[in-house]
Amino acid sequence: MNPIEVGERLGRWSSGRGPLHVLLSARLRQLIDEGELPPGEPLPPDRALASALAVGRSTVVAAYELLRQDERIVRRQGSGTQVAGATRARRQTTGAPVFLHLLEPQDGVILLACAAPDRPPPELADAYARILPALAAISGDIGYHPTGHPVLRRAIADRYTQRGIHTDPDHILVTNGAQQALSLLARAFLTPGDRVLVEAPTYHGALEAFREQAAVLQALPIGLSGLKAAARQHRSALAYVISTFHNPTGSVLSPLTRRTLVEICVAAGIPLIDDEVLSDLGFPGEQVPPPLAAFGNSVMSVGSLSKTVWAGLRIGWVRAPQFAIARLARLLAVHDLGGNIPAQLAAADLLPRLQPLAKRWAVEREARHDHLRAELARHLPGWDVPPVRGGQTLWVRVPRGDGTSFAQAALRHQVAVLPGNGLDASGHSAEYLRLHFLASPRTTRGSMAAERPPRRQPSTSSTRSLAKTSEPRSARVAEAREHSPETAVLRPGQLGEGEPEVAVRVGPELQCPEAGAG
């Protein structure tokens, strides 16, 4: 396992209290005890892991020594470091940071990594209230509907038909969110070694779903530019694209590009997935082109209410040819006999009423988009932050260093961001970060004081926290000495060779970067 993969699996290891080497050893011990780092698994060299985690080498050396004393790892000169015990095969679970963030406790970290509304709208509660009589009147129905409740399948089909794409309920499969839909499609169409054409960058959840089936990912530019040449060069089992308000860049494919893309896939016999989850998230007045399915009925469209309503509703779907829906339903029935019927009835009630909610949410998202860009321009003028016309994320290029090291340093300021390398199958987005703009202005505005209270408190300013992470170290130390009742101490050699810029916490409990999670 390479250093970046280990770093991703560590999750928010540095956001707790205490010396960094103790926090690091504790999280590694947890992964070993849970079997995520199995016996015999090689661990990265000291310097490589230190670089991936944006800490000094001495932090990793001390953490490894604690694990060696606990007999969790074995370290031999010339043979490296590995998890103690006999090697045995075990299927790996995801190491994607966004999923690991969701598994962490609610610890006050500002999540700029997970993009979704942070509360259900009142329209959702109203929908549940309206469906209660129908729910109470159900009889002769055991409640298992692997393809989805007929009422919701009809409502989704009608929505496509209203957009000019004739759709019958038999072409709809309801899922527990779009992520389950992507996982089902991957299981249905991929076998180990199959090639999948993806955009670079793209949605990390799709990459994980394809990797779970041991697929080979071939990265193409946004919009799958170069698809025709790639199809001639290798046989591809699947192609995946986000055609509208692309995640993470926010781009929108033109109607001509959409038509060409569908025609190439049809001619090459490549099943095409169009991820439409963000397609309803345009800013006020923004007109979007027709879905890819309008240019070819073989397109498999994935949709969801997680971004337009609330992720807790867990309503997604696939629109596809009937033979594909039948195959997906058989796979789904084995893993999940059916979804939440009250939620599906509420979703069916809500779908025809989405327009007022979408318009109100669009105004708010545009304002938050503008606010975050303004704050970043004020505090981090060297960052490249292109505007978007919809969606929920910004694709930010940092002027120096790499996104992975920055994300590790940001965690020590209680801010979680997604480094670009995890969203790019080609590995060419190391200098990028993905930030969402759904946070309230209160979260993105304010100041991050150099003086900290004795007990760690979450910052209410993600932008200032990011700015602190990005400042030159000398400026941060000077500010800490000026404003803090405690003295910032940097002992010679403490930072370790090659350590990137990190903030210096000052206060009774934290005297230098190595002494705490700063």
Mean pLDDT: 85
Question: Could you give me the name of the CATH homologous superfamily of the largest domain?
Answer: Type I PLP-dependent aspartate aminotransferase-like (Major domain)
Principal-axes shape call: globular
Oligomeric composition of the shown chains: single chain
Helical content class = 25-40%
Strand content: 5-15%
Short overview:
The chain has helices spanning 3-9, 20-33, 46-53, 57-69, 97-103, 122-136, 150-162, 178-189, 204-212, 227-233, 255-268, 322-335, 341-350, 354-379, 403-411, 441-444, 462-470, 473-483, and strands at residues 42-43, 73-76, 80-83, 110-111, 172-175, 195-199, 216-220, 238-241, 272-275, 300-304, 316-319, 393-397, 415-416, 418-419, 432-436. With 518 residues, it is of the alpha/beta class. It has 3 domains: 3-96, Arc Repressor Mutant, subunit A, CATH 1.10.10.10; 111-118 and 359-515, Alpha-Beta Complex (Aspartate Aminotransferase, domain 1), CATH 3.90.1150; 122-355, Aspartate Aminotransferase, domain 2, CATH 3.40.640.10.
Q: Which key terms come to mind for this protein?
A:
18 helices; Aspartate Aminotransferase, domain 1; seven-stranded mixed sheet; three-stranded antiparallel sheet; alpha/beta; single chain; Arc Repressor Mutant, subunit A
